[in-house]
Design goal:
The chain has helices spanning about 1-5, 15-25, 30-45, 60-90, 100-125, 130-155, 160-195. By secondary structure, the protein is mainly alpha-helical. Keywords: Amino-acid transport, Membrane, Transmembrane, Transmembrane helix, Transport.
């Protein structure tokens, strides 16, 4: 994500963005796949939805890992909550300097309250890991892998070779199947685990 954001800062934006995306979908996916495959090899299908629950090692390494996960969660939350923040700012007429005392107080109370509420609900809900898998299957996978390929096909339909078109359609079909499989798996896992789950079960 950082290379993509940095790519929009300097000209030419489109060329830089393409380079950043190429980097992200080649070099950037390596650690993601490494965690997936090595994690499955090490722990199998019984791994916790929070991977670090299954990891053992020096206390300082685990501490750094937990701290990194915490900061990642906070950053991700703020990125995905930006539309909500913007809506609340507009609805309640937040104007002027972001450093104005009134605006700082409003954002501290409202955004802090939103953060506390979502954190509490995340801890409370027993199916959070499964819910994340479910929403990932019906939103993240299609938005990340299916929709961009389809949009590219529509935008460049007259300029693509048959090989390029086949490649994009292959991505659409494969990730469509992955999305359906992930949805079914998350749903089944939720049903199976309803017998043992309770509130705050993931703590």
């Amino acid at each position: 994500m950082i290379p993509e954001i940095q790519a929009t800062i300097r000209q030419p934006v489109v060329g830089n963005m393409v380079k950043a995306l190429n980097f992200q979908f080649t070099v950037g996916v390596v650690p993601m796949h490494a965690v997936t495959y090595i994690g499955y090899w090490a722990y199998g299908s019984v791994v916790s939805s929070y991977l670090l629950n299954n990891v053992h090692g020096p206390a300082w390494v685990l501490g750094v890992a937990h701290l990194s996960a915490f900061f990642q969660a906070i950053i991700t939350l703020h990125i995905f909550a930006s539309p909500t923040y913007e809506y609340l700012d507009t609805k309640y007429g937040v104007k002027g300097s972001a450093l104005a005392p009134r605006n700082i107080l409003f954002r501290l109370v409202v955004r802090g309250g939103y953060l506390i509420m979502t954190t509490f609900l995340s801890a409370l809900l027993p199916f959070l890991g499964n819910f994340m898998s479910l929403t990932g299957a019906i939103s993240t996978i299609p938005l990340t892998f299916i929709l961009p390929n389809h949009m590219y096909l529509i935008a460049k339909k007259d300029k693509l070779s048959s090989l390029q078109k086949s490649w994009h359609w292959l991505n659409i079909v494969v990730f469509g199947c992955v999305s359906v499989a992930a949805f079914v798996a998350a749903l089944k896992l939720t049903v199976v685990q309803t017998q043992t789950y309770h509130v705050f079960a993931d703590l």
